[in-house]
Amino acid sequence: SIALSFLLTSHAAAAITREAERKRRGRRRRRRSISSALLLLNPRLKSFPSRRLIGVPLLLTLGGFITRQVPLPLPSLAASRISFDLPSIGFNFRCVISLMGVEVATNYAKMEEDISLTDSQLVYSFRLALKSVSSGDTESYRRLVDVMNPSGRLAPDEAALLLTSTKALSGAVADIDDLHHEKLLKAIFNLSLWNFGPDVIDALLELIVSLAASNGKHVDSCLDMLVSNFTPPNKVLDMLKQPRGLEKKERVLPRVHAALKNISELVPMAASRLSSIVLEQMPWKSKRNVDQWSMKRQLIYVENMFKLESGAIREFVGANMLKDVMNVLRDLDVAIGWDDILHDDSSKGVFMIELEDENYADGDEDADADGKLPSTLSEKSLSKNLTAELLDSLMVQTFEHLESSVSNKRLSEVFDTLLSSFKDTVLNTYKSKFTQFVMFYACALDPEHCGTEFASELIDMFVGGHNPLTSRMSAVAYLASFLARGKFLPPAFVASYLGRLVDWCWQYCVMHDGDMNPKLHQVFYSGCQAMMYILCFRMRLMVEIPLLKSQLFCMPIDKIFKHKLDPLKVCLPSIVEEFLKQAKAARLFTSSKTFVFEDLLVSNLSRDFGGLERLDMFFPFDPCLLKNADSFIRPNYVYWKYVRTTYHEDIDDDDEEDGSDGEVEGAAEFDDDMEEVIISRSYGDNDLEMDEFDYAMNKMSITPRNNSSAGLRMPSRIRPSMSPESL
Amino acid sequence: MEGLSVVQANLKVYVDPSQSKNLSSAIFRELSALLFKYDDAFDGVLLAYNVHAPENKGRILPGVHPFIAVRLEAKLLVFSPKPDMLLEGKVVKVTEESIHVIVLGFSSAIITDEAIRNEFKYKTKHGQGLYVNRSNRRHLIKAGTMIRFVVKSMNEETLHIYGSLMPANTGSVKILEKFSEHTNTESVTINSTPKKRRSKEKYEVAQITEHGNHYDPSQNHYDPSQNHYDREIKKSRRS
User: Fold this and answer.
1) CATH of B4-79, one of 3.10.20.580, 3.30.1490.120, 3.60.15.10, 3.90.1150.10
2) Phi, psi of A227 (to 5 degrees)
3) pTM value?
4) What pLDDT, in 10s, does the model give residues A484-507?
5) Exposure string (b/e) for A688-700, b if CB count within 10 Å is 16 or more?
6) Is A269's CB within 8 Å of B108's CB?
7) Best exposed site among A83, A214, A700, A719 by fewest CB in 10 Å?
8) Is the ipTM above a cut-off of 0.90?
9) Where is this region: Disordered (chain B) (predicted)?
């Protein structure tokens, strides 16, 4: 007990002198510590101290110190080695003594003079603490773990403590062992950077990078931790759009990406691990429901993926990031169900509108429409559909990323990856609805390079006999839709690919001198249908340019249609009908037989050639129903509404029209029973939010001109690729 | 630099039947999947392969999934650092507690301060950390220096090497080479007669400068085409 009192007094004296020497932050603290230390120096203690006497001042000291933060461990101080037990007082004196001793040391460590010495001393003491765990002395280690486990908002001195500890720990990483220091590692990896200020974030990231570089076993966990910081905690997620949230985002994300870059510089093999880790930690995976939280998380996660794609380590992870994003888009696309839309209702033509809306609005009982309405995919129902909303936002993000790639002059390499991803996944996805518009937009941004590559790939896939059947038919459907809908594609471009298509069809006719057989010659019929579809949209344009007109007239089109294989009978009736009308008007081809289709959309024969997947009715680039994404697509898109067909005479002859923006005049000449769909987003007009009911009411009028101010939303209903703009 | 060896290997590659049309590309793909990974069979990390004319035929293995087994011979470049081997690498980061090195561009090595001999003292200059040799002020180790170090151990899964700068023949490669060159020529002159020595000295001096030019600071010792590897290969062939 004499030794004890001597130690106590010496420590108290030391504490007092130190406190008195330097300027401390709070006068109150100084006073308190000094007073409690003074109590220890009570002369009565110097003499034989009774337990009570030791207890009281110690109590006071304890009280004084407990109000402060958890001190740093510095086991080198003798105080921490005192072990004695005075159970009657009921404290863990060892704890108290170490607290005291350590508190003193903390103060020492925070002295403003002599910082560099303190840093290395601190590092040294940390290393000792870490090493001592294996020998059983876990006191200081446990305190360290507590420091690294901050909870709630950090007070400034707590933050300072975390900062100092982190910096010191960065120097001690070589001694961190995953076996003995599991708790510490867990604490470090659970930290969310979004809760801290910039200097703490910097220190933490420095620690993570050092940890990864020091031991290969930690690389995965470090990468995991960085990737998990791509998404903020829920509180921040809420306010991401506000300035405060944006500021936090700007604070955290660039630093995280810089840390990833630093890790790959120090540990080259880490970059290869990164792609799989990013994929694993994706917030939304397929076959899961989308809710508000996962949507927000997914959006910011994909934003990070795009940052990786264009960032410093893009050559290692960029391609995989793009492919994974495309896979997510495709998965979301597939998750938006068509929901028993595919009724074989054949009362509409491909180029005719859906009358269902009218019926829905009127409440008329129509035999076809009855019972199938509520589940059809409409824009209104889509807008309530969170999956669609997520897909919409992600597609907008993708489009914006493509735009930034253009400004970075990286579009061609991005497009190469997109194209290979498209061929692997989207091309063969059964009735992909909207994902393909990523390709459309990329081609719109660079028609010369990307557009050519895309079209060439598709036609090569179609003519390549070794490719699977469905891929070939799918490819030609994509080609047809692309050539028809791409406003940015010059007519000569369209003509050249059409020429290749026609040539292939003619070669096929020559080689296969057989009779009509939808199932046997599926590829041929799909090629013919593609031809007709393209011509329905582009015939007028091509005929107007003399060079292209002569090219067109040189193509063996009539020979193909007059062949035994009889494509006119097999292909989709509405397309055939429209094509014949236009071809007759342009004097390109006149069929000797008359086709009576009775407004059939599909016939049994077309169903046969379409196969199980109904590729006869697959028009991939039908108008995009996702509102926000469509606003990107719209300026580059050809709507059937505005296509000038060959059988319509120009109402205003002296109007200077650029062929790409079709005027409305053609519509007036349509047959009465063909009601024209009011295509939303007529160029130059703004979007008007419209009630579906109002929209339907407005749609009932035949002449679209009267409704040019109304109905500017996307048509409400769509059947899968039934009509180009049946919407 | 030790640890690199060229081995002649007889391999059997199992190719999926769907790739049977293009066997060679399938084989290359299989072999490429093994690159930069530690393999027990080779007892090292496969860095490169050179396949001699794979046969275009192979036996079909019976079973649920009938793979095609193709035999081929290949020359493989294998990296297998063992303890006490000397390796060379480029320093990427220097801190008071460690030196981080990258070996052959893919493997990261760390040398902790406990494994750095006391000759080297840590200093901070212009915000950068570096180690200075107390006996030779010109002997610096900082970011970008090529150093030679001894392997303490290697983690095969993560290809992480723990190194040591304790032995005297470790440190900055440039300085070590200069030093060894100097000692070599010096030993030659000692044996000669005084008259001849003078002339030889002149000759030796000329040689040193020549070689001084040869060991250009800017020369990257790392080009695979350089002598080091060739030597290694010859060595292994002999052994």
Assistant:
1) 3.30.1490.120
2) -70, -35
3) 0.71
4) 999 999 999 999 999 999 999 999
5) eebebeebbbbbe
6) yes
7) A83
8) no
9) 209-239
